[in-house]
Design brief:
Elements lengths: L2 E5 L6 E5 L4 E4 L12 H23 L3 E13 L8 E13 L2 H15 L1 H6 L4 E8 L2 E2 L1
Parallel strand pairs: 5-6
Antiparallel strand pairs: 1-2, 2-3, 4-5, 6-7
Helix pairs in contact: 1-2
Keywords: Oxidoreductase, Peroxidase
Enzyme class: oxidoreductase
GO molecular function, one term: peroxidase activity
């Protein structure tokens, strides 16, 4: 796996591109007029994307009918010397459709305990929690 990062303006805007040519913009969001996400926001996006792929994949294999899927991710950061790494990350899955709530909860559990490489990478240093709502009801 390899990405390239190219600076595309005179400030802090970068384009990150993978080997398939897909890209995202990273920027210093503490500056006015930022045109991309911050690197730390991209970490939260990676957790959401990785676990989201797992949950949808597991539920599709179980023939659950997903009509809506959203994840909200919040990260708490703490100062460590001059850096501010994540201390904890909380993921909330909001699923809609003809979905067995127990299967949805199990899918999230499997993602975080077994499959999600992003959360497994962060896990030794970051506490990761999750909750699941199916059709507006917390499971």
């Amino acid at each position: 796996m390899k990405i390239t990062l190219n600076r595309i303006n005179d400030d802090f805007l970068f384009e990150c591109t993978n080997s398939q040519g897909n890209s995202i913009l990273l920027d210093n969001t503490s500056q006015p007029g930022a045109k991309g996400v911050s690197p730390m926001e991209s970490v939260l996006m990676a957790v959401a994307g990785c676990s989201g792929i797992d949950v949808v994949s597991i539920l599709k294999k179980q023939r659950q009918e997903i009509t809506g899927f959203q994840a909200e991710v919040e990260g708490e950061r703490v100062p460590v010397d001059d850096a501010k790494p994540f201390k904890s990350i909380k993921v909330k899955f909001l699923l809609e459709g003809n979905i067995d709530p127990k299967k949805a909860l199990k899918a999230a559990e499997l993602s975080f305990e077994k499959y999600c490489s992003v959360s497994k990478t962060l896990e030794p240093n970051v506490e990761i929690g999750y909750e699941v709502l199916v059709n507006g009801e917390k499971v």
